[in-house]
Design a protein that fits this description.
The chain is mainly alpha-helical. The protein has 3 helices and no strands.
Length: about 220
Amino acid sequence: MSKLPKTVLQRPARLPETPVPPIPKVDETKSDVASVQYSAYRTGLSNHRTGLSEHRTSLSEFRTDLSTHRTDLSTERTEMSMRRTGMSFQRTRMSADRTLMSVIRTSLSLISFGFTIFQVFQKLRDAGTLAHAAAPRNFGITLVGLGIAMLVLGIIYHLQFMVGLRRERHAMATEGLIHAESGFPPSMTLITAFILLLVGIAAILSMVFQIGPFF
């Protein structure tokens, strides 16, 4: 977007007050002389009115230039508003990614902590140290399941939010309210969430059915 050049508008100089030509005193007995004097008076009045008209024309041109300048400024402000709105969509998208990252961190903590508890008590039971380890093992499975459920809900919410955001952005671009020149790149946070979801599912399958890569 090219910035408008700085324009300095010069107001026309104030017109000095000129008195109206006085009415001439004529000798009514001399009609020819009186006619000439009145004609000269009318000419003076016409010149006076012409000067006023020229000044009014200059003022009108100045007002027109001011209006044009204000229109240009309004156009520039509208352009800036459109670009700020477009940037707001990008910031909203990044905020949604940060929200999903928080869900990923919480889910990862639940899955890893639950899997660790399960593995510790499973090894203790296999070694004969504990005779009954069902309760802590079930607690570990519950934590992993909770982490997976939280991650699924976070992914669904993120997808719904992004679909709505894209639709709103497309609608505003169609109406000419924003440019929408920058695209929405694939969300690496969402890809990471799907990978973690697969890992969590594999972990809970290994814990429940004792199969899979983590058994």
